[in-house]
Amino acid sequence: MLGADQRAKIQKTLRSDGPFLVVSHRRPDGDAIGTSLALAAWLRGEGKEAAVWLPDPVPANYRFIRSVRQIAGSLPSDVSDTVVLLVDCPDIDRAGDASALLRKARMIINIDHHRGNTQFGDLNLVDTTAAAAALIVLELMQEAGVDPAPEIASLLYVGLLADTGGFRYGNTDARVLAAASHLVECGADPAELSRNLFGELPAGQIRLLGLVLSSLELVLDERVSLMYLTDEMRTRAGVCEETLEGLPSYGRMIRGVAVAVLLREDCGVTRVNLRSKGVVNVSAIAATLGGGGHAAASGATVDATIDVAREVVLSAIRDALGSANL
Ligand SMILES: [Mn+2]
Predict the structure, then answer these.
(1) What pLDDT does residue 1 have?
(2) 163 near 136, Cβ under 8 Å?
(3) pLDDT of residue 280 exceeding 80
(4) CA 214 / ligand 1 centre spacing (Å)
(5) pTM > 0.90
(6) Which of 203, 217, 261, 298 could, after both became Cys, cross-link 283 (CB 3.0–4.6 A)?
């Protein structure tokens, strides 16, 4: 089994007294939020002290999760006695400004599934074949002989749903479906959780989706789709932030498109989301832009206006498609 030695040490640490602090990455997604809360709830269920802290606020579309209220508003000033568990975090710097403090923890445990994880922990459980960090935490629970309580099962199910796009992306495999089945047996409600995650949107988000879809551009022999999300579109739709799951994935649905790009204006910089059908490794493209992610879903930030970013991104994609000989 992957990292058997590290696993055994992590299980031993999880059985210790703690205290524990669970942290995930900036701009938290469903896997980061669900997995962090699930891990802390498991530890608390075992009688340990376990808090969750996230470097950015939980987006509105995840506030249906009741336990997000338990997320700490601030970090403790001293973590020298604390075991810090970083989940879904390829690098400790992804925890933002807190990373300097977190490095002073008694112990750092790194539980992640991103390729390119920097193995920054004192103990590292990095399984890049896992569809979600939630899957790794579930397997730790199963290994410890624990069936997740319904609340924990639901949190882990949210992680699986979010990272597989509702069990549709290329990372959907027998292992993640078996895990989902087990979580349903333990009390997760698949229809309700899917509806909460993908089907409970304010009208403004649908208006914004319409504007983004209308911006579609096909380039490079129609193998690359580009869509844009600008501040002007947010104003027209009457929303402050986009909370649509899978917004970057629409361009990938187009027949013949190998790489889908969503460029989002964000406070003077441009956020770049890249999606592929698995043939082109967009995590390598994101890496040339200083970002990262997975083979079929990655992202980067370009410190430039959306027009300049468009040229930078297209040039990186042109190089990648050229060398992939597609
Ligand atoms: Mn994840």
Answers:
(1) 65
(2) no
(3) yes
(4) 29
(5) no
(6) 298
- CA of 220 from ligand 1 middle (Å) equals 30
User: Same structural domain for residues 124 and 211?
Assistant: no
Contact between 104 and 120 under an 8 Å Cβ cutoff? The reply is no
* Closest C-alpha among 270, 227, 233 to residue 252: 227
- The Å distance, Cα 130 to ligand 1 centre, comes to 9
Which residue, 150, 171, 198, sits at the end of a domain? Answer: 198
Mark which of 171, 198, 225 sits at the end of a domain: 198
Domain that holds residue 159: 4-198
- The residues, ordered by sequence, that sit 6+ positions from 54 with a Cβ below 8 Å of its Cβ are 23, 24, 28, 32, 33, 36, 71
Per-residue pLDDT tens digits for 76-124: 999 999 999 999 999 999 998 899 999 999 999 999 999 889 999 999 9
Task: Please give the radius of gyration of the chain, using alpha carbons only, rounded to the nearest integer.
Answer: 20
Residues 166 and 182 in one domain: yes
Cα of 135 vs centre of ligand 1, distance in Å, is 9
133 CA from centroid of ligand 1 (Å): 5
Tokens of 54: 């996230």
**Is 326 a residue whose pLDDT tops 70?**
no
**Closest by alpha carbon to 50, among 26, 66, 67?**
67
Query: How many A from CA of 84 to the centre of ligand 1?
Result: 18
Number of domains in the chain: 2
